[in-house]
Write a structure and sequence with these properties.
By secondary structure, the protein is of the alpha+beta class. It contains 2 helices and 4 strands, in the order βαββαβ. 16% of the residues lie in helices and 19% in strands. The structure holds iron/sulfur cluster (2 copies).
Length: 64
């Protein structure tokens, strides 16, 4: 399961420099991770200054 960048992203671009898979790109509003290429290595999580990158497991399943 790929990591995900949340809306708190300030588009600093730091994560793109550290991602070994180069799978983070500048999206229209925030940076986005390509889920097909992300290996869940966690490198981006450690460098993000606003802690807005989470593993998919950290996102709560919407209640229905
Ligand atoms: S978890 Fe690793 S592979 Fe996935 S986006 Fe972050 S740095 Fe890239
Ligand atoms: S390091 Fe964090 S704030 Fe900076 S572009 Fe990446 S996700 Fe956004």
């Amino acid at each position: 399961m790929a990591h995900v960048i949340e809306e708190e992203c300030v588009s600093c671009g730091l994560c793109t420099e550290f991602c070994p898979e180069s799978c983070i790109t500048d999206g229209e509003e925030l940076f986005v991770i390509d889920p097909e290429r992300c290996t869940d290595c966690g490198e981006c999580v450690t460098v993000c200054p606003v802690d807005c990158i989470v593993g998919t497991a950290a996102i709560p399943v919407p209640a229905r």
